[in-house]
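Handoff note, outgoing to incoming analyst
You'll be picking up this chain. Sequence as last confirmed:
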Amino acid sequence: MDNKADRAASSFKEGFNCSQSVLSTYSKLFGLNHEVALKIAQAFGGGMAHMGHTCGAVTGAFMVIGLKHGKVKAEDEEAKEKSYKIVREFVNRFKSLHGSIMCKDLLGYDLDNPEEREQIEEKQICETRCPEFIKNAVGVLEQLL
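Most recent structure output, in case you need it:
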């Protein structure tokens, strides 16, 4: 049995960021080359390049939703609205689990602050908290897809 949540968390533990871990777990399902998925999602880690904004597991999930439901014709407003609706539902469910989609809120530290980033590394905050965010993001995706 394929457990995408565990596979995504394992990818994170191998050294990929949250966004890469989520998107790459689904890449083959949607015909996206695994390495290309890793490259696309790379800049979204740490809440967008370590700025502490939207959690990488969340942005990775948004990309998966786009792969599944995104519009490919400029006039396809129905597909656009469907993907936006699913993204909003994803956010509601993720927030109900964690209270926020913001990386710095989820971690309790600001990755954009050098002193706080040092504390994150010393305390291994990402290693302990991010796998849960990744697994829950994939769990919510599985419910919505």
